[in-house]
Amino acid sequence: MVNMEVNLGGLKMHTPVATASGTFGYGFEYVGAVDYSKLGAVTAKGIRLEPWPGNPMPRHVEVPGGLVNAIGLQGTGVEHFLKYTVPWYRKQVADVPMIANIWGGTVEEYAEVAARMGDTVDAIEMNVSCPNVKAGGHTFGQDPKVLHEVVSAVRKATTLPLLVKLAPNVPSVVPYVKACEDAGADALSLINTIPAMVIDIETRRPVLANRTGGLSGRCVHPAAVKLVYDAHNATKLPLLAMGGIYDAKDAIEFFLAGATAVAVGTATFTDPGVVAKVCDGIAEYCERHGFLSVSQLTGALV
Ligand SMILES: Cc1cc2nc3c(=O)[nH]c(=O)nc-3n(C[C@H](O)[C@H](O)[C@H](O)COP(=O)(O)O)c2cc1C
Q: DSSP label at 74?
């Protein structure tokens, strides 16, 4: 029997497989369709302080090997999340930890959302790939100084395990990894979607109402593996890796590159059962290669 437990910066997961934010609703919607015993954690859809409508439709389009989405972080707001979503999740899914994914328009908003979470959830993941309204709309995750500031503010506001989800569209991930480490993050998530655009050549219009969106799915996987590898070489912080996991092989690549745990995203749209298959496949690989524990896979690249 392979020991599948991992510790992701203080978040204890009984399997190393989580769901990625925005691809698994608020976590309870798949009860009856997915074997939750194979899930080490569920990451909920992004939440800010107030309800947020997201972008107009159309807001997603399939591309070869993936998806471009511009959902625009539609969400219920923190009050509804704490009053209805979390209690309902706990009732439906008693024993799978919930990671709340938070975002905001200002440093103060991030800190307030984190503080409001209290200890109702099991960990917080900060989505820093959203515009800083006080800095002309530049995203928090693309300036190491600003990233340090927002992570420090959230660190002061919560004692929960704190994950920061890094943006992939930076020349080098290393300064961002260091900024998060210095600011007190417990773990890093990577990658978020890659900025992308699809054009309908007949209408000469962008397909998405928002014009641009974020690319995810199989096609981003090799880029994600490289970023996880770079991050692992720059820090001892545990990494939650995501980006194009469709089977156990994709997940195992992430472990070898340095991940402590993995998250499945876009693949669940075509097969919600992928998470369970990925979990079983990792255990089978460990057995076949003589690893007693999945944690021995982390960074085991030769
Ligand atoms: C439809 C959709 C919605 C998403 N919403 C969020 C979100 O609310 N917060 C966030 O941090 N990431 C969000 N993401 C990014 C995913 O969590 C994940 O980082 C990315 O899709 C890469 O993984 P994948 O290729 O397995 O999907 C979203 C992705 C998709 C496809």
A: -
